[in-house]
Design goal:
Layout: E1 4-8, H1 13-24, E2 28-33, E3 51-55, H2 61-71, E4 75-78, H3 87-90, H4 92-113, E5 118-124, H5 147-166, E6 169-175, E7 178-179, H6 188-200, E8 207-209, E9 215-216, E10 219-220, H7 221-233, E11 240-242, E12 248-249, H8 250-260, E13 269-271, H9 289-295, H10 303-318
Parallel strand pairs: 1-2, 1-4, 2-3, 4-5, 5-6, 6-11, 7-10, 8-13
Antiparallel strand pairs: 9-12
Helix pairs in contact: 1-7, 2-4, 4-5, 6-8, 6-10, 8-10
The structure holds NADP nicotinamide-adenine-dinucleotide phosphate and ligand F7E.
Residues 8-9, 11-15, 34, 40, 57-59, 79-83, 98, 122, 124, 175, 177-178, 184 line the site of NADP nicotinamide-adenine-dinucleotide phosphate.
Length: 320
């Protein structure tokens, strides 16, 4: 029988890769979109006729229940959120509504419509914030450093709580940063790949960034959606950390990206106080050994290959 999945946030980076992945597995794929005066479906344009879209907003409980009733999914992947950390300081209440309370609305919808649905929550390494130990695993305590991180901690624990209270198959994937040519332009990897492409093509002269010392465990989004799916195929609902275990600084990112097009990064990158954050997450590094052992999951794309893939894609996109 054909499996049916519902993906919230299908127009986002991860939603689009997950839709590709599930279609490849033979799923019937449904996705939720917010009503907008203009369509923003670029990331799913290539599969537009293979997925079914439904209007839904995380702020609107009725829209969630209606979509769950219409689609009757076996699996729900809750990827929708306000996901950009700096915006969470400018719009902390909206971030809380989408990224925290939105998860409760999804879980309440599932409990009401069909408690047998398997539920995936997109938790984040931002929950570790000011890290209590390195590398971080499923047992590491959380210390979020932004309204976004705080909202994700709520989303994480409400998922755990509904699993324990109502026996739902509800899991959290604690995913470390993952990137791709479909990454939003404001995130640092894409800002760098886009900036490098513009400089190489003579369309820009400098690239203004914030904290170059920040370190992240960056992986490839295409690898990470596979881990989401694996978590929902398990016998027991459990949470997993997903990351590469390799950490790089923003400085490394710049060096590798500029080197790829034969340029010296120091000549073009300027630190700009506008891009520093009120509270920073200095470093994150995953210990994904539980996922490796239990899910048989491992990242396939290295950081260097990821950066080169993103730079090449932006050069191709921007070339006349
Ligand atoms: P993204 O590209 O920003 O996509 C977010 C998606 O959420 C978009 O489709 C957006 O729709 C939708 N959305 C936002 N607010 C909504 C609302 N009120 N109602 C319904 N849909 C709404 O994010 P991503 O990188 O794919 O990340 C996917 C999820 O994983 C997010 O929850 C994020 O917080 C989490 N996460 C991401 C990473 C990472 O490194 N990428 C790591 C850990 C966790 P529009 O197109 O209408 O804006
Ligand atoms: O920043 C530093 C910045 O915005 C990474 C989201 O997907 O991953 C993402 O959150 C680092 C930070 O991602 C600039 O200070 C320096 O230390 O690419 P980012 P993020 O904040 O780590 C997590 C796991 C999520 O869950 C989130 O949804 O890079 N940095 N200069 C900069 N960052 C940006 N954006 N722009 C700069 O100019």
């Amino acid at each position: 029988m054909t499996k049916r999945a519902l993906v919230t946030g299908i127009t986002g980076q991860d939603g689009s890769y997950l839709a590709d992945f599930l279609l490849g597995k033979g799923y019937e794929v449904h996705g939720t979109v917010r009503r907008s005066s203009v369509e923003k479906f670029e990331r799913i344009q290539h599969i537009r006729d293979r997925v079914t879209l439904h209007q839904m907003d995380l702020l609107d409980q009725l829209s969630i229940i209606t979509v769950l009733e219409e689609v009757e999914p076996w699996e729900v992947y809750n990827l929708a959120a306000q996901s950009f950390v700096p915006t969470s300081w400018n719009q902390p209440l909206l971030t809380g509504e989408f990224t925290a309370l939105g998860v409760t609305r999804m879980l309440e919808g599932i409990r009401t419509v069909n408690p047998d649905i398997r539920f995936y929550q997109a938790s984040s390494s931002e929950m570790f914030g000011m890290v209590r130990q390195t590398p971080q695993n499923e047992e590491t305590p959380f210390y979020p450093r932004s309204p976004y991180g705080v909202a994700k901690v709520y989303g994480h624990f409400i998922t755990v709580n509904y699993r324990e209270s109502y026996n739902l198959f509800a899991v959290s994937g604690i995913l470390f940063n993952h990137e791709s040519p479909r990454r939003g332009l404001e995130f640092v990897t894409r800002k760098v790949s886009d900036g490098v492409a513009r400089i190489k093509l003579g369309m820009a002269e400098v690239l203004r960034l914030g904290n170059l010392d920040a370190c992240r465990d960056w992986g490839y989004a295409g690898d990470y959606v596979d881990a989401m799916w694996r978590m929902l195929q398990e016998e027991e609902a459990e949470d997993f950390v997903i990351g590469t275990g390799v950490m790089h600084s923003v400085r490394d990112l710049c060096r590798i990206a500029f080197e790829h097009v034969g340029l010296e990064w120091e000549a073009y990158v300027m630190e700009d106080p506008r891009f520093f954050r009120p509270a920073e997450v200095e470093e994150l590094c995953a210990d994904a050994s539980k996922a490796e052992e239990r899910l048989g999951w491992a990242p396939r794309v290295s950081f260097e290959d990821l950066v080169r893939m993103m730079v090449d894609a932006d050069i191709e996109r921007l070339s006349p």
